[in-house]
Specification:
This protein is an alpha/beta fold. It has a single domain, classed as 3-Layer(aba) Sandwich (Collagenase (Catalytic Domain)). The protein is 42% helix and 21% strand. The strands form 2 sheets. Strands 1-2-4-3 form a 4-stranded mixed β-sheet, covered by helices on one side. The protein has a 3-stranded antiparallel β-sheet with strand order 5-6-7. A hairpin with a 5-residue loop joins strand 5 and strand 6. Helix 4 crosses helix 5. The longest helix has 20 residues. The radius of gyration is 15 Å and the shape is globular. The two termini are 24 Å apart. The C terminus is likely disordered.
């Protein structure tokens, strides 16, 4: 798996913790063989939530049936937001796993998506009713707990910086698929 960073510069330590969190999150969800084929570009945007009302999002960057290239955007609003960033990362890696395993796929036509065996026009389905989002919200806390328990450096950093890792679900808005 290859991970690169763009956008707002974080410290080397923060970038390494993000790499670890992505790796652990994907370990929880997909095979090592599949994980090794993925390339993820992480774009850190300062005050993304303040400016656009989203904590983060992701999109496949190749139009293959089984995409391997992904872009993930994450909000960063200072060191106290790092815990929230890791939580959003947990959510967005679920979508990466959904695409990489072909459970979630973009189809031709505007906003057409296949999840599992069903086809949706995502613009006609409320965000909170989209089954791929329901799954991601159901799993994100389990994955966050797994990351925090598996990497003591992340856990210690979140604790030492008094990071906020709570967010009401209703304020998490994602871009349209």
């Amino acid at each position: 798996m290859f991970i690169d960073f763009q956008g707002y510069r974080l410290s080397h330590k923060q970038e390494e913790m993000i790499r670890s969190a992505i790796s652990l999150s994907l370990d929880y969800q997909i095979s090592q063989r599949l994980k090794r084929t993925l390339e993820i570009s992480v774009t850190i945007e300062k005050d993304l939530y303040e400016d656009r009302r989203i904590w983060g999002d992701m999109s496949p960057e190749d139009d293959e049936r089984s995409p391997k290239l992904f872009e993930m955007r994450l909000n960063y609003s200072g060191v106290q937001s790092f815990g929230q960033l890791i939580k959003v990362l947990s959510h967005e890696t679920i979508h990466i796993a959904q695409f990489a395993t072909r459970r979630l796929r973009h189809l031709s036509g505007s906003f057409r998506v296949r999840f599992e065996k069903d086809i949706y026009v995502s613009s006609h389905v409320r965000y909170e009713d989209r089954p791929w989002e329901i799954e991601a919200h159901d799993l994100e806390d389990k994955i966050l707990d797994y990351i925090r328990s598996s990497d003591p450096e992340i856990e210690n950093y979140i604790q030492s910086k008094a990071c906020d890792v709570w967010r009401p679900q209703s304020t998490f808005l994602a871009s349209e698929l």
